[in-house]
Each structure stands twice: as structure tokens, then as C-alpha cells.
Design a protein that fits this description.
It contains 13 helices and 7 strands. It is of the alpha+beta class. The chain folds into 2 domains: 3-178, Transcription factor LuxR-like, autoinducer-binding domain (Beta-Lactamase, 2-Layer Sandwich), CATH 3.30.450.80; 187-253, Arc Repressor Mutant, subunit A (Orthogonal Bundle). The chain starts with a helix and ends in a 6-residue tail after the last helix. Residues 182-187 have low confidence and may be disordered.
Length: 259
């Protein structure tokens, strides 16, 4: 692999989808089955109702992950925020313990591994990427590389040579440069519950109240179905309820959405 050609492909891409496609091709040379890019800053700070992410992973995996609330408990999130170096799933103590099944109900780490295994993923490498903006703000994300093969430590390291790490760092820079700006949304507070919902959360609830599925709502809102799931899950958490139907009922009764 000639590094100039690799970085050249990332440099000449003019859109987020183009950069993602280039990075997917690069990582595919090292047996990476799928990949995701997640803005860690928005996850840690909860500054947005859903983190900015791009992925080549199937929608049903992402939807199941979101609906189960794994974003709040995934050990990868905190570790990537505080780390400068790549690590694999089982470098996280929670996953290392959970990989050995024991009788009884699985904890959250075990459930995350089970979900990944159900979709054919056996291990992964997490690449934390950080950049200081001219304003002094920190731009942080992680790139998750999914593998379908069972590999030992040495085999996994062979799938992550220096040129792939360099590509990941430059990929982050290009994503920050090209990703769409997130408009500041108006927040609407319920006088009764004190909950504050964003425009997008209220829009998702509104369409849900009219019987639209997540897929139909995604088409209307021009987003992906997993993003709709993020909006609905965030609204449920803010309203203190545990399902979409209850969230719609509370939002309607408190005037957060119109019937």
C-alpha cells in the first residue's frame, strides 16, 4: 500500500460519503468488514440529542444497539475519550470479563458482545482521534473497525499497521472539514415535566403520534432510521418514560407536540 495514494484518495474526496467510502476501501485491505465514525464529544457532553456518526454497519445492528440503550454503557465510549492509542474490544476489562459466559443474566457488556456476535462481528479495533480547533476547542471522535474473524492479539495487530493508523487520523481531519454543521435547535420546555426537547426530537415524536414507522419518519426527516431511533430514545429519557407510545402520550398531554 502506497501511503501517498491512500491519503490522496481521502484528500480528493469532496463529501462525507466520499471520504467514508475511501476509508472503507483502505480498511478493507486489512480484513475490516465494516466501520463506524462516532463524534465522541457529543456523546460525552450530551450536547446533542444524538451523536454525529457515519457507518457502513447494517442499519438493524445500529437500531438494536440504540434501542437497547447501549450508548450509555458501552465501555468503548469513555476509554476512547481518554485514550490516544488504538485498542481492541477486549482491552476493555468489561468486555474481557464478559467474553467468558457464566450462568445467569448477561450484564450490559455481555449483551453488547452478544449483539455484535449475532451480526457476525468477533472483535474490533477502536481508533481514538483528537484534533484541536483554531478556537482551542477539542474535536474528538473514534473510528470503530469491525472484524468477522476470531484472531489472537498478534493477528489483530497485523490488521492495524502504521499506515492504517495514519489514514484514520487523516480521515478524522477530513470528516471534521466536510461534515455538515449542526444548527442550534430551539428547545421547548414542558412546564409540567420540566423536560426540554429539541425540534428534531419533537418532530420524531409528532410523526410517531401519527402512526409513522421509523423508516417512514426517516424518509420524511431526511435522516437514517437509526437517527430517528436516537431522537425517540433521547425524548423518552428526557420525559422519564420507557417506550415510544408513552413518550407520545406525555408529549401530547404537556403540549410539547400538536395532535
Amino acid at each position: 500500500m502506497i501511503i501517498d495514494e491512500v491519503l490522496g484518495g481521502l484528500e480528493t474526496a469532496t463529501s462525507v460519503s466520499g471520504v467514508l467510502s475511501e476509508m472503507s476501501k483502505i480498511s478493507g485491505n486489512f480484513d475490516v468488514a465494516s466501520m463506524s465514525y462516532v463524534d465522541t464529544s457529543s456523546v460525552i457532553s450530551r450536547s446533542e440529542s444524538e451523536p454525529y456518526f457515519e457507518t457502513t454497519v447494517r442499519d438493524d445492528f445500529i437500531s438494536s444497539y440504540v434501542e437497547a440503550g447501549f450508548l450509555d454503557v458501552d465501555p468503548v465510549i469513555r476509554r476512547s475519550w481518554n485514550s490516544q492509542s488504538p485498542f481492541n474490544w477486549f482491552d476493555c476489562p468489561e468486555f474481557d470479563v464478559a467474553k467468558t459466559r457464566s450462568p445467569g443474566r448477561r450484564n450490559s457488556a455481555g449483551q453488547i458482545l452478544d449483539l455484535a456476535n449475532d451480526h457476525g462481528f468477533r472483535n474490533g479495533i477502536i481508533v481514538p482521534v483528537h484534533r484541536m480547533e483554531p478556537s482551542g476547542a477539542r474535536s474528538s471522535a473514534f473510528i470503530s473497525l469491525y472484524f468477522e474473524k476470531d484472531m489472537n492479539f498478534t493477528q489483530l495487530n497485523q490488521r492495524f499497521p502504521p499506515e492504517l493508523w495514519l489514514s484514520a487520523l487523516y480521515f478524522h481531519q477530513r470528516m471534521v472539514d466536510l461534515r455538515p454543521e449542526h444548527p442550534v435547535e430551539d428547545l421547548v420546555r414542558s412546564e409540567q415535566t420540566g423536560a426540554m426537547l429539541t425540534d428534531r426530537e419533537r418532530e420524531a415524536l409528532c410523526w410517531a403520534s401519527r402512526g409513522k414507522t421509523a423508516s417512514e419518519t426517516a424518509d420524511i426527516m431526511n435522516v437514517k432510521p437509526p437517527t430517528v431511533a436516537f431522537f425517540l430514545k433521547s425524548a423518552q429519557n428526557k420525559l422519564g418514560v420507557y417506550n415510544k407510545t408513552h413518550a407520545v402520550a406525555v408529549a401530547l398531554s404537556n403540549g410539547l407536540i400538536a395532535p
